[in-house]
Design brief:
Helix 3 packs parallel to helix 9 and helix 5 crosses helix 9. The model has no long low-confidence stretch (mean pLDDT about 95). The protein contains 14 helices and 13 strands. The chain has 2 domains: about 230 residues, Alkaline Phosphatase, subunit A (3-Layer(aba) Sandwich), CATH 3.40.720; about 140 residues, no CATH class. The longest helix has 20 residues. The protein has about 400 residues and is an alpha/beta fold. The site of zinc ion has 7 residues, from helix 3.
Length: about 400
């Protein structure tokens, strides 16, 4: 059995430009790997013209087709937050927000700090509405998870986040008849949340007095990676969503000290962990979030510098891995500030591989030996490489 690393720099691609972050970044180590044993390609994660989210993109990269395995973002967030979901449960991703007379003033309550958010969360920890237990679990900054547990619930409901400010918060609507009761319970819950949070005294200008919910998800147990592909896999990730998707597909998801899932993450700790886990695993999924965060902030320089940081750590992995795949889950052009459907530059390094003659960047990679291919091919290739087929 061979050892493979799947290194995902989230939102790596910058679209069809020869002036993207990957082209500009000084990456002597990746360049050398490419020159000696690297081939490139362009990955279309979901399909031509389809802009991926991070959750569905990762699910597809892990070899889990969306029509059978996509259960809604809330579920992956909940699993990532360490919540043990059961079949029948419904989970939402939630944001602390500020409303005034039901009008949304700020969708993140001024990006409230984690510590404060956790204190305020005590006031809305749990309630039972019409036999349904509803719990709120805060995660990082303004983010959290709302879990519903009870009989006859449905995830076929809309969220309460209007996705813009200066409009009324959206009432939860059922998408079919069966979901009517769940939607009513959510709307009652929203009123209770607001009443509870209004009572909390705070000096903040933007009072965290509401929760905006989105991405209703349900839970089902699915066959894990080991069962489906016969390989042992571990996720080295800081962000809850990525851990959640990895947990859903049965990867080990250890907590790594210093891996924060943001720009301040400890890359040394992450690469060391990846190196250590290669000893006992066939596949190490190593996730880097900051490249996507810089892109959303339209900070091209920051993205470039972070790729350079990753380059400083990568050689360590070549000492234990037989193959390393370097790519993103989707493109997030830093000039655009949001995800796009552009192919993601992809590089495969391996000791026995004859290099192609293209460079690993947004434009040239697509002309490499791997050409353009779909995200669903990634896990198939990983399994073949591991089993030496
Ligand atoms: Zn992503």
């Amino acid at each position: 059995m061979k050892k493979v690393v799947l290194l995902i720099m989230d939102g790596l691609g910058d679209g069809p430009t020869d002036n993207g972050s990957l082209a500009k970044a000084k990456t002597p180590n990746i360049d050398n790997m490419k020159k000696e044993h690297g081939v490139c390609g362009g990955m279309i994660t979901l399909g031509k013209g389809i802009t991926p989210h991070s959750d569905n993109a990762h699910l597809v990269l892990f070899g889990y087709p969306l029509n059978r395995y996509y259960v809604g973002r809330g579920t992956y967030e909940a699993l990532g937050a360490g919540i043990r979901m059961k079949p029948g449960d419904i989970a939402f991703r939630a944001n602390f927000a500020t409303v005034k007379d039901n009008i949304v003033i700020d969708r993140r309550a001024g990006r409230i700090k984690t510590e404060i958010a956790h204190k305020i969360a005590q006031h809305i920890k749990h309630i039972n509405i019409e036999g349904v237990d509803i719990t709120f679990t805060p995660t990082i900054e303004h983010r959290g998870v709302v879990l519903l547990r009870g009989k006859g619930l449905s995830h076929r409901i809309t969220g309460t986040d209007p996705h813009k400010i200066n409009v009324r918060w959206a009432r939860c609507k059922p998408l079919n008849k069966k979901a009517k009761k769940t939607a009513e319970i959510i709307n009652k819950y929203m009123v209770w949340v607001h009443q509870q949070l209004e009572k909390v005294k705070t000096q903040r200008k933007l009072k965290p007095n509401f929760l905006l919910l989105r991405g209703a998800g349900y839970y089902k147990k699915v066959p894990g990676i080991k069962e489906r592909f016969g390989i042992r896999a571990v996720a080295v990730a800081g962000g809850a969503l990525y851990k959640g998707v990895a947990r859903f597909v049965g990867m080990d998801t250890p907590d790594i000290k210093g891996a924060t899932g943001d720009k301040h993450t400890d890359l040394n700790a992450k690469f060391n962990s990846a190196y250590n886990y290669l000893r006992t695993n066939d596949l190490v999924f190593l996730h880097i979030k900051a490249t996507d965060s810089f892109s959303h902030d339209k900070d091209c320089k920051g993205k470039q510098k972070f790729i350079e940081k990753v380059d400083k750590h990568i050689l360590k992995l070549t000492k234990r891995a037989d193959y390393i795949m370097i790519t993103g889950d989707h493109s997030t052009p830093c000039t655009l500030g949001e995800h796009s459907a552009d192919p993601v530059p992809f590089m495969l390094w391996g000791k026995g591989i004859d290099p192609d003659n293209v460079r690993f960047n947004d434009v040239d990679a697509l002309k490499g030996a791997l050409k353009t291919f779909y995200g669903k091919e990634v896990m198939k290739s990983i399994v073949k490489l591991i089993k030496n087929e």
